[in-house]
Amino acid sequence: MFERTNENKVLRDPVHGYIHISYQVIWDCLNTKEFQRLRRIHQLGGNYMVYHTAEHSRFSHSLGVYEIIRRMCEEVEDISSSLTEFEKIQVMCAGLIHDLGHGPFSHMFENILHKNHEEITQTLILDENTQIHQALKRAHKDLPSLCASILNHTHPNSMLSQMISSQLDADRMDYLLRDAYETGTSYGKFDLERILRTLRVSNGILCIKESGMHTIEDYIMARYHMYWQVYLHPDARSYEICIELFIKRYKEIRKSIKIEALEILFEPFNSDNFYLMDENRLFYGFQQALHCEDETLKDLANRILNRILLNWIELEEDSSLHFEKSTYCVIENCKDLNCLPYQEKENPIWILNTKNQCIPLSDCSEIVRALLRMDINHKKRVFYN
Fold this sequence. Notes:
Layout (H helix, E strand, L loop, with lengths): L3 E10 L3 E7 H7 L2 H4 L21 H18 L1 H6 L2 H12 L13 H4 L3 H10 L4 H9 L3 H9 L6 H7 L5 H14 L8 H7 E4 L2 E5 L3 H19 L2 H20 L17 H5 L3 H11 L5 H12 L4 E6 L13 E4 L16 E3 L5 E3 L5 H8 L5 E6 L1
């Protein structure tokens, strides 16, 4: 038996109503410095410069993922009966801490650190000196390695990884609902309650009862609309590009101009340094750069602090229009962006039919078949001053 909290903890949440915590290890993980750091990381990167209420953090999203997984473990009979208490603890902990490795402005920062957030998350979990490792280990000596194995899909029970990272997982379900709520957009909504009611397990694989298929179609369409209307918004990308250009420029001139707050970006990676990499530090660095001698760095800092975005246009991929190479000119191909709402080749969403057979979603849904036939956008965006 795992230690319970002295009372059931409840945290108010605009998406789920309440987040419920009854295990001490979850409460201990929440109170580590590595998890608290997520309060200082925006969930949507540069999107809060487009949707002014999108101020939510990776902290709130991570709690939401945990809550959906907790509900799966406790309310979905097939899942509850097929997992031991220890497996439930493992997947709830892994869901809670799955985003520890996100840097400032979330996914954008991976382009700067040249490390993906999943890799950093596992490093933090397995580093014996981190508070998160110690909190997990106090509950069970193998819990850090088991949580890491869930996140890197090597756990012996693959269903635990499916619950956090698959085509139908707690991560996607929370960020769609939360991001729709925080941006004030309605097309990211879907019926979470219906999904949980129709979720089943067949031969160790998560699947949906055939009667719940139309809810899954809504979920996939919500993802499609959120990608094109929110996640890939060109103005949000323009803001992030300004930050990327700022860091690139600072790297070029840092031998002659020192901005102390930003030097940590160029030190060897370790868990202590990464803890200090948050948006507060970067904004302090941007403020310091307003007074430096380099005009380009000053201009980029001003753009970031005061939302003076780069212009952009969208062109066909084979367009012959020429742009002069400059510090401010960035060309990106839309087809390179991960914007497909459903990718069945990776791991399909399974539908459990009335004969207790698991069938890929595309074999049952005309809507999904149409999405899979859809041409990827082959346009390119040019960002310029």
